[in-house]
Structure formats: structure tokens, C-alpha cells
Amino acid sequence: MLFNSQIFIYGFLPFVLLIYSLLRQSKLPHKNKYAIAFLVLASLFFYGWWKATYILLIIPLVLMNFYLGYKLSETRSKLLLVFSLALNLSVLGYFKYASFLSDNLMQSIGLNWDPGVIILPLGISFFIFQIIAYLVDAYEGKAKDSSLLNFSLFITFFPQLVAGPIVHHKEMMPQFEKDQRGLFLDNLM
Q1: Any residues with CB less than 8 A from the CB of 131 and at least 6 apart, and which?
Q2: 142 phi and psi angles, rounded to 5 deg
Q3: Cβ-count burial of 25 within 10 angstroms (0-12 exposed, 13-18 middle, 19+ buried)?
Q4: In the predicted model, what is the mean pLDDT of residues 130-138?
Q5: Cα(117)–Cα(8) distance, rounded to whole angstroms?
């Protein structure tokens, strides 16, 4: 789904804004958690619109990196940081360069083997570098997110998931914690 498509402008975006605003203004206990959970689900839907199977890539990455960030913020282990960075860069490298490298390797040794086409997931560079920024911040003690839900939103938030910008955890997440009365609905009235 493109940001300038009719389905996004007239369907997805108004629906997400409306439901998010209703949840934030509701009388529900823990209304902020429901609103954030809705944004995570909407963001995953947005990401899966292009190719649903890549949701199977982003969800494990979120879970794995939430755990790694938690461990980094507790231990401040340089070895764990290097491992975490290498793991994420390996995922990025696989999708960006595996096809190119295997083609060239097979040609150079004279084999005619086709490993198949590896389709580059939309926005993978942005969310991998967003994750890396978080891991470095966690290692330095600048980010400690004890909520998987908040971390999931930080990584998957649809307005910046596929096109950036890459932001730091401390810049983005406080915006979702603020009391945002009148965010959308009051401006319509």
C-alpha cells in the first residue's frame, strides 16, 4: 500500500486515525495499551499489504531484538552487542546480497545452479537500522523498554516503517505516552 494510493488516503489512514483516537479518548482502563496494540496491528497489516509472508520476517525480528535489547540494557556486554549487530546485519545482508553473491560465485566456479529469487522485503534497511539504533542505545543505557508492545510499535509504526526516517527510541516513544486529548476527533467537531 503506497502512501499516495487511494486505499491508503481514503481508507486505511482515516480508519486508523479514527480508531486510535477513539481508543485514546475512551474510558477503558489501560486505554493507551489498547491504542498502541491497535497501532501495532495496523502497522503489521500495512506492512503485510505488499507481501503478507514478510510479516513472518518482521515479527521474529521484533521478538528477538526485544530480548537482545533487554539483555543489553541489563548486562552492557560488548560481546552481546557485537553479536546482536552481526545478527541483524546478516539478515539485511542475506536479503540484499545473497542472490548477487551466489550468482557470482556459481559463475566463477563454473556451476549452473540457480538458488532462486530472493525478494527484498519492503523497508528492510529502515527497520534493521532502527533496530540497530535501539540496540546501541540499550547498550549505552539510553533506552530500556520493558514493554514488548512499546518496542513493537517503535519498530513497526507504519508512517516510518518502509521509508524512514530512522529515529531513536527516546525521541519517538514519549510521544505515545502523552495525553493527547483532542488529537483527531475534537478537531473534526
Answers
A1: 61, 65, 88, 155
A2: -90, -15
A3: middle
A4: 94
A5: 29
For the chain, the first-to-last Cα distance in angstroms comes to 29
- Cβ contacts of residue 14 below 8 Å, gap of 6+? none
Residue 100 CA to residue 117 CA, distance in Å, equals 10
Mean pLDDT of 154-173: 84
Distance CA 55, CA 49 (A): 10
pLDDT band at 99 (very low <50, low <70, confident <90, very high): confident
> Is the predicted pLDDT of residue 182 greater than 80, yes or no?
no
Sign, CA torsion 134/135/140/144: positive
- CA-CA-CA-CA torsion sign (115, 103, 60, 80): positive
Cell numbers that stand for 178 in this block? 502523552
- Who wins on pLDDT, 188 or 38? 38
Confidence of residue 171 (pLDDT cuts 50, 70, 90): confident
DSSP 77: -
Helix (H, G, I), strand (E, B) or coil at 54: helix
Rg (CA), the chain: 19
d(CA 31, CA 55) in angstroms, rounded, equals 26
Least reliable range by pLDDT among 77-86, 121-130, 180-189: 180-189
